[in-house]
Design goal:
The chain contains five helices and nine strands, in the order H-E-E-E-E-H-E-E-H-H-H-E-E-E. The protein is an alpha+beta fold. It binds flavin mononucleotide (FMN). Flavin mononucleotide binds next to strand 2, strand 4 and helix 2.
Length: 192
């Protein structure tokens, strides 16, 4: 019988938290640009279930631009201890406005102000420019409701493949590669 890799992922994430891994939800996100050049950066996993792995970002950022051009991505988690890696790849969709609003509104006031202020990955003359922009945004939206900007939302990576890697002595690591066929997952062990 094949184990559900999403269930295994949840177990492993809980184990990483139990081991005190710093930022256990941090994951490398790889995208591909218009010239077919890869780019990778860390983002935080905010939700994972059978529908996929969700992170939030500025949709006008380079990663947002990449995902408009090529809506496929790879994710990679590394937790040590306990010496585990999880790789995920699949198609990417934006979350619904309701999901994005619900998560945005759950964030602290200054995070919401920051999201409105940041022209993510655009040139900045210096930190003072950012501080001035934050102060101006706080005046526009004093404590209370801060609207989610149109260019801030979540993406869901809908996994086609998931691979779990467990460190073992003498580099005889254990790798389980899962491929989705419709609603079912097939499991294949791989050489390390
Ligand atoms: C630990 C950590 C967590 C991060 N989480 C996020 C995140 O959830 N969303 C995000 O947009 N950027 C996050 N970043 C910043 C990204 O790595 C990156 O610098 C930024 O999103 C711009 O990427 P881009 O220019 O490739 O679009 C995080 C960085 C680190 C180191």
């Amino acid at each position: 019988m094949t184990t559900d890799p999403l269930h295994l992922f949840q177990t492993w994430l809980a184990d990483a938290k139990r081991h005190g891994v710093h930022e256990p939800t941090a994951m490398a996100l790889a995208t591909v640009d218009r010239d077919n050049h890869p780019a990778v950066r860390i983002v935080l996993l905010k939700h994972a279930d059978e529908k996929g792995f969700v992170f939030y970002t500025n949709t006008d950022s380079p990663k947002g631009e990449d995902l408009r051009h090529c809506p496929h991505a790879s994710l990679c988690f590394y937790w040590n201890p306990p010496g585990r890696q999880v790789r995920v790849s699949g198609r990417v969709e934006t979350v619904t406005n309701e999901e994005a609003d619900a998560y945005f509104n759950s964030r602290p006031y200054l995070s919401r102000i920051g999201a409105r202020t940041s022209r993510q990955s655009q040139p900045l003359s210096g930190y003072a420019e950012l501080e001035r922009a934050v102060a101006a945004e706080m005046l526009r939206h004093p404590r209370g409701r801060v609207p989610r900007p149109d260019n801030w939302s979540g993406y869901r990576v809908i996994p086609d493949t998931i691979e779990l890697w467990q460190e073992r002595p003498f580099r005889l690591h254990e790798r389980l590669h899962y491929t989705r066929n419709g609603n079912r997952w097939s499991e294949q062990a791989l050489y390390p």
